Amino acid sequence: MLIKYKNNKIFVFSDSHGLHKHLDIPQDTDITICLGDAVEDNLDPHDYDDFLNWFSAQPGKKFFLPGNHELIFEIAPEWGKMLFKSDDIKLCLDSLEVINGISFYFQASNFMHLSLPKGVDILLTHYPPEIYEYVGESRPVRHFYGHIHENEGAEYMDDHTHYNNVCCYNHCKETLREKIENTIKRVRTRRNAKRNGNI
């Protein structure tokens, strides 16, 4: 999902589950954020390498928040931190980041009680807002989350916050299906042209 906030173009996504190459991130994006579940949970280093190589080549400043499918952060957290150590990508675990004048709070853990620093513009979680209970008076302007594929793209507001589900799994899967169908059509067209002597 691409938004413009305080003169910055911010692209946020989650739950690509290995289909990240079917995402189209605009080249003029200032900040690119993945909210986890970039891979499946088979702990295959090649899956991580494939995602990290792709992600590091994307535009803007890049930030990564692990999801529940990045099991490496539960089983071997230090290895996970080493794997994501990069000049191009910042790994964010329960941290406040101020980027281009915008304050982002990355909540990696799924603790129910969520106490935010004052003045946070954007809250980023892998899990949906329903599992959190805000403690204190601070509320973010925006809350981006993932995890729930069924209501991918959902958007709503309350008195304080604008919420967006930035899951992209179904979108990526549909894009892949269309590419496969188009490839099959091209192959069939070429075969038919050969049979008819047009090639």
Task: Please give the number of β-strands.
Answer: 13
Under CATH, the homologous superfamily reads Metallo-dependent phosphatases
The helix/strand class is: alpha/beta
Hey, roughly how much beta strand do the residues contain? Answer: 25-35%
Distance between the termini: 43 Å
Task: Please give a structural write-up.
This protein is α/β, with parallel strands linked by helices. The chain has a single domain, classed as Purple Acid Phosphatase, chain A, domain 2, CATH 3.60.21.10. The strands form 3 sheets. A 6-stranded mixed β-sheet has the order 6-7-9-11-13-12, with no helix packed on it. A 5-stranded mixed β-sheet has the order 1-2-3-4-5, with helices on one face. It has a two-stranded parallel sheet with strand order 8-10. The N and C termini lie far apart (43 Å). The mean pLDDT is 87.
Concise description?
It is built from four helices and 13 strands.
Give me some keywords for this one.
five-stranded mixed β-sheet; 199 residues; six-stranded mixed β-sheet; 26% strand; single chain; globular; 13 strands; alpha/beta; Purple Acid Phosphatase, chain A, domain 2
Topology readout:
Elements lengths: L1 E4 L2 E6 L17 E4 L10 H12 L4 E4 L7 H4 L1 H7 L5 E3 L3 E5 L2 E6 L5 E2 L7 E4 L7 E2 L7 E4 L9 E3 L4 E4 L3 H27 L4
